[in-house]
Amino acid sequence: MITSLFPALLLTIPLGAALGFCGGLFGIGGGIVAIPVLILGFGFDQATAQGTALVMMVPNLLIAWWRYARHNPVDIKLAAGIACVGSATTWGCAHFANSLDQEVLRSLFALFLLFVAWRMLGRTPDNNGDAPPRDKRLLPLVGLAGGSSMGLLGIGGGLVAAPLLTGWFRLSQRAAQSYGLALVAPSSVFALGTYAQNQRVDWGMGLALALGGLATVAAGIALAHRWPERTLRRAFGLMMAATALWLLVSPWVTGR
Length: 256
What we know:
- By secondary structure, the protein is mostly helical.
- The protein has eleven helices and no strands.
- It has one domain.
- The radius of gyration is 17 Å and the shape is globular.
């Protein structure tokens, strides 16, 4: 068993390193790539893939949150509000996700990916250019959307939060990622606890991903603060669009 698992772990650690770098660069946990890889490459069911990916995401997100907060100070009360709303929503939705049929859960995951692709490929940047920004006191409501995604799908809190924070509240990309991490970092802890409680976590695989991610997340964060704002925003959009397209095409390529 250990012999057969060893090659898989050797592949998983570099994968975790790549995901950790992307997580630091874009303020996300990397689960949007890790979950399909665990399903298509390692034969995990949907819920176990989501729970296992969270083992990697929790330390990556906590480190990224701490480092972003140091370089991009945000309103503590607003960040705490987002974190509290997001964590409560995550907890409820994670329990609901573990009660769902696996095919239904996988269909919801696919629909979320379609939404991401539509947002990144179809949205024009200036759609709301003339509209006034929303009152920042409403920022905690972003936690409802991000927490729902984190709990139900194990991913997407940052993907949901960042466009809302930049488009509706006119925050810079770095400030949006900082607030987004205030949402997803504590929410990921609640989500992992719930999936673990329901025996939906492969700790060996998850810890291998986490080990690789911890080695590179700081490098991703450092690069994020060197890139111009426009470059960071464009790279974020291109990475999300490419990931969504790959995930939609891969089942037909692999036949799984």
